[in-house]
Design a protein that fits this description.
Blueprint: E1 2-6, H1 10-23, H2 32-35, H3 40-49, E2 51-57, E3 60-70, E4 76-84, H4 93-104, E5 110-115, H5 119-127, E6 131-139, E7 145-153
Parallel strand pairs: 4-5
Antiparallel strand pairs: 1-2, 2-3, 3-4, 5-7, 6-7
Length: 163
Amino acid sequence: MISIQLADDAAELEQIRLEALKTNPECFFESYSVISTKTDEYWQQLIDKQQYYTIKKDYRVIGMFAVYLDSDRAKCAGITSVYITPDERRNNYADSMIDFIVNKFKHWPLKLYVTTANIAANKLYEKHGFKKERETSGTYGDGNKYQVNVLIREKHLVQFFMG
């Protein structure tokens, strides 16, 4: 059984985020060498600024993700920092995580950026109704270039039928 909850422990968030950057640096838009030098204050600010969630199995953190509400510009909920530890992949935890996000933020269009190199993630999001809006490129903090798919999923529309 897994639980998904708001992160409230900056040290726990730091640990899983650094593991993610070591394990799958190609999937994130920042590098381990840059982020590993951040202070405790930085990690606490992340928790305060965005809705970071941890995914736990038997009290052990096995994943994370964050959601931010961009109500000013894009009027959408942005998904970021998605990660499941390698030993827990292919156990449908990523599906549970996406289902959680879709249900919790059902009144918001969802948007995320995923590197084109992360084929498994692109397939996961497509399976959950995300569509490619466009492709773009950027530069990591260490100067390396990356290609990104911008994916969007429209909000759930509730229809009422009158009979």
